[in-house]
Amino acid sequence: MKSITRTLRRSLCIGAGSLALLLAGCGSMPSWMGGGQAVHVDLGGGQEVPAVEVNGTGSGSITVASDGSVSGSVTTNDVAGIAAHIHQGGIGSNGPVIIPLKQTAPNVWSVPAGAKLNAAQMAAYKKGDLYVNVHTATHRGGEVRAQIIP
């Protein structure tokens, strides 16, 4: 009986250790652990309000965790960006900036570390009422935009 108990304990310890190593090796927390779901975004001028005719585009991924923590980035093509933000606003409407993005490389705009939505912003996110856009000198209100729809 002692042999069986000892073997069981070893197996549990090995299993728990393996799980810990697996989770430690993950680049981000899985959604079932509160890490959030990555939302792919495709930015274009036609989504701006009012729409703008431009050749530029963008794409990226924004993740909102269950605690409101936000991460991710967008990369643009043929957009001379001067600023980028996540705004609160539904499709067809503009809204206030809630998270300014940082330019981390040419044409790459990233959510700064520690960014977090408050309760009202989290409710807006769940309804699809957040968007990301990149502003240029030519289109100060925004040149390319995408809704962040979970």
Walk me through this protein's architecture.
The protein folds into 2 domains: 1-30; 34-147. The protein is 21% helix and 36% strand. The chain contains 2 helices and 9 strands, in the order αβββββββαββ. It has helices at residues 2-24, 119-126, and strands spanning 37-44, 57-64, 70-77, 81-88, 97-100, 102-105, 108-110, 130-136, 144-147. The strands form 2 sheets. The protein has a 5-stranded antiparallel sheet with strand order 1-2-3-7-6, with no helix packed on it. β6 (102-105) and β7 form a beta hairpin. It is globular, with a radius of gyration of 21 Å. The N and C termini lie far apart (52 Å). 26% of the residues are buried.
Outline of this structure?
By secondary structure, this protein is an alpha+beta fold. The chain is built from two helices and nine strands.
Secondary structure layout:
Elements: H1 2-24, E1 37-44, E2 57-64, E3 70-77, E4 81-88, E5 97-100, E6 102-105, E7 108-110, H2 119-126, E8 130-136, E9 144-147
Antiparallel strand pairs: 1-2, 2-3, 3-7, 4-5, 4-8, 6-7, 8-9
